[in-house]
User: Fold Glycerol-3-phosphate ABC transporter from Companilactobacillus ginsenosidimutans.
Amino acid sequence: MGFLTPPTAKKMVPKDKIDPTYKKLRWQVFLGIFIGYAGYYLLRNNFSLVIPKLVNEGFSKTQLGVAFSAVSIAYGFSKFFSGIISDRSNARIFLPLGLILTAIINLMFGFIPALTQSITAMFILLFLIGWFEGMGWPPSGRVLTHWYSVSERGGWTSVWNVAHNVGGGLMAPLAAGGIAFFAAHVTGMKSYTGAFIIPAIVGIIVAIAAYFLIRDTPESQGLPPIETYKDDFPNEEHEMFETELSAKEILFQHVLNNKWVWIIACANIFVYFVRYGVENWAPAFLTEMRHISLAGSSNSYMIYELAGIPGTIFAGWVSDKLFHGRRGPAGFCFMLVVSIFVIMYWKATNLVMINISLFMIGFLIYGPVMLIGLQALDSVPKKAAGTAAGLTGLFGYLFGSVAANAIMGVIVDHLGWTAGFITIFASCLIAAALFAVTWNLRGQEVVPKDGK
Ligand SMILES: O=P(O)(O)OC[C@H](O)CO
Assistant:
């Protein structure tokens, strides 16, 4: 698709302009991918706020749950396939395009009543939402690898990663505000359509802003590669790899034959099992076993989410500063310590201890979630970064997240919460062990000698 083709290198700007231009553009593109990815999260889960209204209209939770699962399934596959396309696409176009397509599907939900009257229609549209949502992470990864060198990437990636907590956090008031606005001011439309339409309008505005802010690569702006500018190279030979690759080269020469990517992808299954196993089952565990009200458990849930913000930034800092760009040791430590707080959460009987342990689990698990993506970016040439991160996402969602919902449910139903917590605890240790295998991995970019 021609309009997605990355822009070619521009004539180099004068030497004295390199530093100020780089400084300005690095902030500008960062803002672009930050608000862009937050925009994606405004439209990822807004359907969840519509579910209670649709239940009132006669749909069962099971039906709506099946329809909603389409988002995760499609997202896992799309993050991988979008990664392949995004590695060969202009991030300035690719990121806003996915956001606008997601917004269009939301507008269809909002303006075409028949689409919320059939589970099949909802499944198809939610599948499309999941698919277009998968177009957010890979171009962000492309920007991060092209504009930030390996030793500073941990810090920048961790701050960028907070965008998903910001967008996810803002989604609820925005969608709920949309429902309230439509209920009060719009006649002839169901109030819940506001939960689709208002976030979609904001999403389109964000996509336009992201388009104006993002630039694909430094070279497309007449700047030298980031490694030269920062004098920070991913390998001892100071070689870089600036040739755009074909999809076949990306997949078969750099990703599928890369043992590190497979190890990281496997680690992601267990990290996502812990992330969603704790999060998705917190309301059930707290209400059933600790007799906490639904309102109280939703506060605990929010504490878990918000703790991810400082935790993610701390993990990036630890991996950059303490371990000098190595993500494995940081991930190992975080997963080991999180296992202790999983036990504390399981055993805690009063609300204060429960909330402290959930805060610590949230603080410690979102770091490894980010570090896996970062390790994927680091382990391959930057032209293959999106595909590598996409593969880890595919494993995380298709196996980790699905298991956290389905297998965890079966374990708890048949063997009880003790078995459920032992499974989560074991996942922490397996993930820690897999991180340990990558202990010395540090931006080991492979640079083909023949220039291919
Ligand atoms: O689970 P994802 O793909 O939405 O990604 C969330 C974070 O950005 C992971 O780094």
Q: What stands out?
A: Confidence is low (pLDDT under 50) at residues 444-452. The chain has one domain: 17-218+247-437. DSSP finds 16 helices and no strands in the chain. The domain at 17-218+247-437 is CATH 1.20.1250.20 (Growth Hormone; Chain: A;).
